[in-house]
Structure formats: structure tokens, C-alpha cells
Amino acid sequence: MIKFLKRTFALMLLLSVVSLMNIHICYAISPSATPEYDGIDVSNWQGNIDFRRVKEAGIDVVYIKASEGTTYRDPYFERNYNNAKANGLKVGFYHFLTATNVEQARRQAQFFASVISGKSPDCKLAMDFERFSNGITNEEINQISEVFLQTLKDLTQKDVIIYSNLYDSQRVFNNQLASKYPLWLAYYGDYTRLTNTASNWSSWAGVQYTSRGTVAGIDGYVDRNKFTQNIFLGECTNCPEVEEPEPSDDTIENATIEYTVKRGDTLWSIAQRYGTTVQSLVEENGIQNPRLIYPGQIIKITNESMETNEMGHCVYTVKRGDTLWSIARAHNTTVQSIASLNKIQNPNLIYPGQKLRIEISSNNTADRVTYTVKKGDSLWKIARMYGTSVGYLATLNGIENTRLIYPGQVIVIMK
Fold it and tell me: Which of 135, 163, 172, 272 is the most buried (most CB within 10 A)?
């Protein structure tokens, strides 16, 4: 009896704490309504689109990239909007948010509103906020999101929606945002079986279920989506005229990031991960000994080769000496994936200055680096190749005999 009373008291205490903390976690995400509508989202990456054929292929809804940051207008925005409307598709707009503080969020909301001035969207205006600056807290991310969304809503008098992957809907965007704004979920799997799945949202108004869809009228891959009627605005009216914000210093926001060194890092591995060079990191950070960095050290990285990503992708500018293999390894993807996304016929033929679209892993494994042992390799040789130690690799991989590795074995270099 005493044990029962103790368990009951503990359960009541836990429920009280949860209530006080205003925690609201849902364990199933389902469509917010029926029926569902077939949709796509597009940007300049799709080039010229034949929207007549897209409509004939059964697509009902198209979300179009309008803008990014405070200066970038998608060069195909006007063309995509006019042609999609002319062929009877329901149209939505999205902005790729790069703000690092609330003032930048306000300015980006104004810029987005200015780009879509006079246009008549059928769907809620979407915030795509998925690449967060190193060191920014979840509280700051939510503040930035709230300011952007509310400012955009005030300026356009249109309802808004949050585009987010499953992880961020669980761990980043909070319950307050989830209670105010619907979710456009990015989930590349069986979205019909999102049960026993924690999230601050209980339903989605849209789900982006693949980045490798194909649709008649579009050359190459395109993101495919399902949308519910809750994606639509109550009425289709023109967005009010909004002036573009005055230029300011934040037009170069996110040019530099700060990376905190972790155990096992080397300048080489950091440079590979961020698409830069050891020499650039040395010069920018005043490092005297490139072989000597330590956990907790802050490394500043200004990377002109890497542009911000959109809808789960980034853009990498090829440098002299690059190969598709080295680029794929640095971004935790495959040569085939990069070649397919960029319509590369000959994987051995890339050139400096070429821009490559790279799909970013949705399960946050971009920091993981592995090596497959080849005949003649030794742990010492692999450690030297990656600028680390035999002891570190042995500990990380649970290797008891450092002299015994075999061809085909996968060695984790960095988690």
C-alpha cells in the first residue's frame, strides 16, 4: 500500500511539473484535414518549367521561392508565379530566412513582403528557417521566428506557416510557435505512419516527402509534397504594396560562422566539413601551429564557397583541386547523389567556379566522417591521413588490437 501511494504521489508530482512547464509534446503527427492535394515547391534550380504539363500531371499546388536574406530575389520568381497562375495552379510563396537576431528578422520579413507586393497567393506564406548560425540558442531561434512571422503577417495581412524538418519540430521550435502557426513538415520517409513520434505539432498542413520527385514539365528532380486544405488562405487577394528595406550592414549576415572545436577535430577535418582550406583557417584565426588546436577553441570560418541552403540543400562552389569524391566525402553524401542533383554526365569532369547543389542529410549526420579500410592500410597510416592519433581512433571504434584492421572495415574518424 505504501509503495502504491508513493508511485501515485510521484506520478501526480510529475504531471504537476509538466503542467507548470507548459510542456506539450504530441506523439503522432497526422494530416490536419482531408482531402490531400499533390504539390511541389520550386526555385531557380528547376530552371524553365512547363506549368501546363505540370498541371496535366495532376499537381494542384506549387510553392515558389521568392526571396532569401535581405537582398536575394529568386531570378525565376516572376516567371514561375505568372506561368503557374496562368495554368490554374494554387500558388504559395516561401522565404529562406537567414537572420541571426530579431532586427534582421524584421528586415527580412519586410524584404519578403516587398518582393511579393501585388501578387495574389492562394496559400499561406511560408518561413523556411532551417540553417542556424553556430552558437545561436533555441530561445533566440524562436524569438527570431516569432518576430519574422508576426511582422510578415502584419505587413501582408496574410496567414503564415512554418516549414520545418521533424527534428526541429521536436527540439527547436517551441510549443508557443506550434500553437499559433501550422506546420509544413519535411519528412523523407513514410509520412503516413508518423505515430509514436514526438513533436510540438499534432498535425501537418503540408508534408514534403521527397527531394527526388519527378514531374512532367520539369527537367530533373523536384521536391514533392502533400497538402491539406489548411494550407490555403481564406481568400485570394493581392498582397499590399510594401517598400523594400533600406540597405544596411546585415546584407552580409552569416558571412562568418564560429565553430567550437570538439575532441578529435583537426583543422583539416574542419576545413573539409565547411568547404574551405587549412590555410584559410590558419590566416583567419592567427593560428601559429596548424597541428595544435584544442577542444573548446573557437574557430572563425568565412566561407565564400558555401552559400545558404534552401529546402534541405546547400550550394557549393568548386575550387581548384576538388573532385566529386572529395566534395561528397566532406558533405557526408555520395558522388551519385551530387551527380544526379546537378545533371552531371561525367562525374570526373567538374571545374573551378562551378556551383553544385548538395543535399543535406535530414538526420543530422553531416558531422560524421568515416573511412573504409583498403588493402595495405594501417591504423597509423589512417590516423596520419586525418591528422589524428592511433589512440583516438582505437577508442572511438572500440579497437583492442591497433595492429589488426582489415580491408572493408569502416573506421569512424569523427562523430
Answer: 163
Best CA proximity match to 45, nearest among 219, 176, 193: 219
Q: What whole-number distance in Å separates Cα of residue 350 and Cα of residue 334?
A: 15
Residue 350 lies in a domain: no
**What kind and span of H or E run contains 96?**
strand 90-96
- Interval 352-410: pLDDT, tens: 778 787 775 444 344 456 778 888 888 877 776 665 667 667 767 778 777 788 888 88
Active-site residue list: 41, 130
For the ranges 229-238, 288-297, 332-341, the lowest mean pLDDT is seen at 332-341
Q: How far apart are CA 72 and CA 77, in angstroms?
A: 11
CATH of the domain at 230: 3.20.20.80
- 229-255, pLDDT tens digit by residue? 999 999 889 999 999 987 765 444 444
Q: Is the dihedral of CA 178, 61, 237, 65 positive or negative?
A: positive
Sign for the pseudo-dihedral over CA of 229, 198, 201, 206: negative
Residue numbers of the domain that contains 407: 368-415
The answer to whether the beta carbons of residues 96 and 308 sit under 8 Å apart is: yes
Which of 186, 218, 239 is the endpoint of a domain? 239
β-pair partners for 64: 42, 93
> DSSP state, 255?
S
